[in-house]
Amino acid sequence: VPGYLGGQDRLKAAGIDEVLIFCVNDGAVMDAWAKSQKIEGSNLTFLADTRAELTKALDIVLDHAGVMQVLGNPRCKRCAYYVEDGTVKLINISEGPNDPAGDSDPSKSCIDYMLERIDNEC
To answer: What is the pLDDT of residues 89-100, one digit of tens each?
Structure first.
């Protein structure tokens, strides 16, 4: 989130109007997280995927046993999508063989990698 928040000018220069951030969580948690990240007035919008419906539809459920031990419930994989006029143009998922949550290397879902791919491929 901090990279996308700090990269507002870069996003606008790339023609990106809005960044949607969703998590398998409830609306109250997402609202609190949005406030703590100080996204008000930015082009970031936090959304709750309370029952993991979007996460399941996109086939990005994070249900690895190690993650489940810590978090208790399935979550969403750390990912970034580039969508243009309702069409998915790019998908990046930050995960590795021994790192299903992408904690060790989240770079594929971060702003620099996304903007580079958008610039080179779209």
So the answer is: 999 999 998 899
Of 84, 86, 3, 85, the C-alpha closest to 44 is 3
Burial 19-35 (b: 16+ CB within 10 A, else e): bebbbbbeeeebeebbe
To which residue do tokens 């702003």 refer? Answer: 111
Q: Tokens standing for 19?
A: 């960044």
pLDDT in the model for residue 70? 87
pLDDT for 71? 84
Residues of the chain scoring pLDDT < 50: none
Reading the block at residue 60, the tokens are 């990005």
Neighbours of 59 (CB within 10 A): 7
* Long-range contact pairs involving 90-96 (C-beta distance under 8 Å, separation at least 24): 90/114, 90/117, 90/118, 90/121, 90/122, 92/117, 93/60
